[in-house]
Amino acid sequence: MSTRAITRPLPDLSHSELSTWMQSNGFNTAHAPRVIRSLLAVQPPKTRADFLWPEKLEEQLKTAFPTAAASLAMRQVSEDGTAKLLLRLHDGRTVESVLMPDFHPERAAGCISSQVGCAMGCDFCATTQTGFERNLTSGEIVEQFIHLRREARAAGRTLRTIVFMGMGEPMLNLKNVLAAVQRIAAPTLGAFGWRQITISTVGIVPGIDELREADLGVHLALSLHAPDDATRADLLPMGKRFDVQDVLAAVDRYQASSGRITTIQYCLLDGVNDSLAQARDLSRLLAGRRMHVNLLRYNATGLSLRGRSYAPSSLEQTEAFLAELRAHGTVAHLRRARGPDIDAACGQLRKREAA
Question: For a tag on the chain, would you pick the N or C end, based on fewer CB atoms within 10 A?
Fold first, then answer.
């Protein structure tokens, strides 16, 4: 029986890959989904009686595969209960994940990264300041889910939803993102549920169409941040490649296929995209579309790539913007700022650790 060492960690293997390994090593492939379910469980098996597969298989799994794709390098917890995790990968690079408490005291939401760094160059984002290093493997994405699920349990909560809104652009690593989602959400594997997952994008049209073709039924979020092409391209360089109408047309196609209502992410920046005229433009843009605007309060990250210093819109202006959207028939709400007393904004903790 072959016990040749395999360098890929166990969280990186798909159901089919693990089944193939088991078959070639003389084990029943029916154990493959059980192993994956156990790996992603809130509480992993501790005693021999907890395992649902033979002891000999367990021994060979430990010999053949590293059991983790990342380790916890740093952890910050805010007064509001938000937890920021910095995970160290096998090559020494780091990636961030965030656990956010829900209004319901027993629930929590997780934010997961898809890349080390980011190449999108969004001017108000801390992640883009460190540049792009590489895509995460599916196992490194799954590992974040495992850490968040167990972090939630330690806080007396249950991880109920996850969003791919951390470091990186998910549509530029969609193959690995979808592979991770399959293991996390599929009923026979992680059983987290397709509807509990949201994948975000700054507006990569081919990626949105590829996600539609994958037909997983996950939710989609679009980081719009401006209703017009000029302002949006100034904030998000990708806006020069895909204009607002082209991106929304791709979102329309996804929504028609999936039946899921898309979330429009809109980060309010003082004097940049928060005027009442821009609120009216946004309402006109979304008129006739079943989309939900999620207004975000900016978590300042210092000087931008272009040497700018962005500030969050005042609470008064934020409320006026929200009221203007609603007055024109747009479904919108304001998301509470999370972790203001820690490095909760995307890329901040990684930047601090590197320094």
Answer: C
Residue 183 near residue 40, CB atoms below 8 Å: yes
Q: Is the separation of the CB atoms in 149 and 14 below 8 Å?
A: no
Catalytically active residues, by annotation: 96, 346
**Amino acid at position 3, single letter:** T
User: What is the DSSP-derived secondary structure letter of residue 181?
Assistant: H
List, for the chain, all residue ranges whose pLDDT scores fall below the cut of 70.
1-6, 46-50, 337-355
CA atoms within 13 A on the CB side of 75: 9
Residues 35-81: pLDDT tens digits?
999 999 988 776 666 678 899 999 999 999 999 999 999 999 999 89
Percentages (nearest 5) of helix, strand, coil residues in the chain? 40, 20, 40
Interval 133-170: pLDDT, tens: 999 999 999 999 999 999 999 999 999 999 999 999 99
What is this structure's pTM?
0.91
SS3 (DSSP) at 178: helix
Cα separation of 39 and 59, whole Å?
15
Summarize pLDDT for 209-226 with one digit per residue, the tens: 999 999 999 999 999 999
The C-alpha atoms of residue 236 and residue 111 are separated, in whole angstroms, by 21
Neighbouring C-beta atoms of residue 89, cutoff 10 Å: 20
Long-range contacts of 352-355 (CB under 8 A, 24+ apart): 353/73, 353/74, 353/86, 353/94, 354/94, 354/130
- CA atoms of 199 and 211, how far apart (whole Å): 9
CA–CA dist 75, 199 (Å, integer): 24
Cβ–Cβ under 8 Å, residues 344 and 297: no
Q: Which tokens is 67 given?
A: 């059991």
User: Cα(286)–Cα(163) distance, rounded to whole angstroms?
Assistant: 22
